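Box S2. Input/output pair 1.
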Amino acid sequence: MILPIVAYGDAVLRKKAEDISKDYPKLDELLANMYETMYGAYGVGLAAPQIGLPIRLFLVDTEPFSEDKDFTKEEQEQLKNFKRTFINAKILEETGDEWAFNEGCLSIPDVREDVFRKPKIKIEYQDENFNTHTEEFDGLIARVIQHEYDHIEGILFTDKLSTLKKRLIKSRLANISKGNIDVDYRMRFPSMKKKR
C-alpha cells in the first residue's frame, strides 16, 4: 500500500527517532509498504519519519542511479545491485574530504541543492531479520545512506545549506509546508493535520 509522504514542516521530521525491536508490530507489512511508497515516488531512499513514524528505520535502493552515464561501469554496477533495509542504524565514522552533490528529498519536493558530505562511512545496523552488520560504504551509496540516516536523527538536507541558500529557498519551503505545491505522489502536509 502506498503511504502518504510527510511534507516539510511536520514535527515528526524533526524528532530523533527511537530504536525498534524484533517484535515491532507488522514490521514486514510496514517494510513492503515503505518500498512500494518509495518506488511510487521514484525515490532512492525513504526513512520511517517520512511516513510519520519516529522510528530508526530506513530503506535504500540506488538502482535508478545506475543509468547515470556520469558514473563508471563499475560504479553503475554497484548502484544497480544495492538495495538494503537499515534498522537501528548508527554511523560510527565518516571520513575523507567533503564533496558536493545535488540532493533532493521526497519530503521537500522540487527543491534541489548541493550538499557537502564526507565520501566514506562506517555504519552498524540491523537488517530486516535483525541480524547485525558493520559495513563501510563510499561514494553515492554512502551519500544516500547519510541522507536517510539524517532523517532518523531529525535532520533535513536543507539544514546543511549556507545561510544565504536557506534564505533563498525559505518561501519555497513555506509553500511546501502549506501544501501549495503539485506533486505526483501522495503527500501529507502539516496544514492537513490541523484541519482534522
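Box S3. Input/output pair 2.
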Amino acid sequence: MKALIALLERIGHTVVGAAETAPQLEEAFAALERAPDIIITDVRMPPGNRDDGLQAALRIRELQPHQPILVLSQYLADTNARRLLTLPQGAVGYLLKDRINRVRDFAGALQNIASGGTTIDPHVVQHLLSAAHPGPLDTLTPRETEVLVLMADGQSNAAIAEKLVLSDPAVGKHVGRIFQKLGLSPVDENRRVRAVLTYLQASRTP
C-alpha cells in the first residue's frame, strides 16, 4: 500500500485516507467530511482475504451511488468485474494490478474515473467478450469490437485512432455504428459507458 500511496502522490494526487482492511476502508470513508474524488481498493483485503475489498466498495456505493471507485485485482475474475461494472450508476474502474506499473496509463485511468467515466482493463474486456452469450455484440465487426474494447479502457476517439492506425473520422464512424447496433440513442450523453455496459450485461451468466 505504501508504494501505491507514494505513486499517487508522485503523479499529483492527495491521499486523504488509507486502510489495511475492508472494515477500515468503510470506516475511513464514513469519517471524511467530504467524499473523495475516487476510492481505490483491492478486491482481496483482510479480514477474509477473499473479495472483502470489493464487498466494501459495493456497500459504499449503496450509500453513495455516485462515488467513483477503482478496484484493483491480481487475477482476472470476470464475476468481480461484472458485479462492480454493472452497477446502475456512477463511475467505476476495474484494473489488473500490473497496469499500475504503466504509470501514464494508470494516471489516465484515474482521471477518467474521477471525471465520471468507466475504465476496464483490456484483458478483462477481451475475456468478457470471449465469454459473452449471443446477443447484440454478435452484430459487431472485428474492427468494431476492437474499438469497443478501447472504449471500455476509457480511450478517446483520438487515442483509438492512434492505437489502431486509423483516421479520426474513421474511428467516429465505427463508434457511431457501434452505438447504432447496440440501440443507443443519439440523445444519450453517456453512450460510451452504455456501450461498455451492454457487453458486460450480455456476458452475464444466465
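Caption for Box S3: The radius of gyration is 17 Å. The domain at 1-118 is CATH 3.40.50.2300 (Rossmann fold).
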